[in-house]
Amino acid sequence: MRATRRFFLGAAAAGLAARAQTAPSDRIRVGFIGCGGMGTGRIRHFLDHPDVDAAAVCDVDRTHLDRAAALVESLRGRKPEAYSDFRRVLDRKDVDAVMIATPDHWHALPAILACQAGKDVFVEKPFSYSIGEGRRMVEAARRHGRVTQMGNHIHNDLPNYRRVVELVRSGRLGRIVRVHCGLRSNEKSIGSPPDGPPPPELDYDFWLGPAPKRPYNPNRCHLRFRYFWDYSGGVFADFWCHYADVAYWALDLRAPRAVSAAGGRWLAQDNAETPDVFEAALEYPGPVLLTWTLHPQGRPGFEHMGSCVIFEGTEATLVTNYSKHEVWVKGRPAPDFPRPEPSIPDSPGHIREFLDAIRSRNTQTTCNFEYAHRLNKGALLANLAFRTGARLEWDDARERVANHRDANRSITRRYRKPWKLG
User: Fold this and answer.
1) Strand ranges, E, within 7-80
2) What's the pTM?
3) What confidence score (pLDDT) does residue 300 get?
4) How would DSSP label each residue in 289-344?
5) pLDDT of residue 11
6) Which of 129, 133, 196, 232 would give a disulfide with 108, using CB separation of 3.0 to 4.6 Å?
7) Which residues of the chain fall below pLDDT 50?
8) What's the pLDDT score for residue 25?
9) Hey, what domains does the chain have and what are their CATH numbers?
10) What is the DSSP letter of 230?
11) Which of 161, 151, 184, 154 lies closest to 7, judged by CA?
């Protein structure tokens, strides 16, 4: 799973040398909300672009905040303003855009309020904690005319997916009715530390925000929050957008019409809640069946590709990971399989695409909130099917489960006071 980190090429380094330094009056001023590991990495990626300034950094953990401010100073020669409350960042008239790299349960509110404050928004994946939140994020961006992007960098920073999409769309693989996504999980036990007082540098109540009040536990906070249902949807939800993205893109998938899932936390002995063995089946109009496997070995038969996506066509099978793909015919590799001419233009880079759209105001980014919500919905429904133990039939026009009344209670969570979903 660490492979994701290796492919952060958002700066589009090859193009940086060709771009002249931008005049100070023509700079994009960004506020960085959430400065943990991912957020700190994103600060570097944004500041690789010479026309970007870090106007402010924000985090509820003083250690993260001080580290982020020092990083900006080392890269730009001056410290940015530092805040513990993201709303102070949004109050600033000189902030053009925000980058949100908070835990999943804190994506929606800052994004919606940023749109209302006239800021453009880059938000990390997974897009939203719940389907209802995602819908509100889309509506806010549309209503206020904001440029948006989800941090799904594999979509733009590596050319391989473009070639896969072209080949699938060419029809040379035949009709695609099954797609398999296999994530090779290297999850290890995170242990079961006891509850205790939060560290003094952390505003734990603010960190919880709209999530339920819980005693502080080291495993429930910061990097490991992903293993708990209060804040996220597990490793599956974290990586869904990187792998399911190529299937949605190539086949123009919309919402599944039915979803089922099974699995559990069977391998690790710890206090985590989300599965480490997981199987989901999503049925799309077409028909197309998309399955997902989360397992230490990934997809049997394609172990050499690691975590990968398999398009099963009537004429040939295509298997792809982030950086390369193979075509198989009748059980054998077909390196000379005919391929179409490239037709999808190369990207300037995931972050550069966002910055260019801020400047032009007349282009949509490829992973804008509309697309991000459509993509993320599949993962959220699969987790909902797993937690209810039911095969859920989905009415996308109403964004409601048609056959399970109790499941609809999780479409939008009840926020802990005083927080409200705007």
Assistant:
1) 28-33, 52-58
2) 0.92
3) 77
4) EEEEEEETT-STT-GGG-SEEEEEESS-EEEE-SS-EEEEETTEE-TT---PPP-S
5) 35
6) 133
7) 1-24
8) 54
9) 3-155+362-369 (3.40.50.720), 158-189+223-343+373-407 (3.30.360.10)
10) T
11) 154
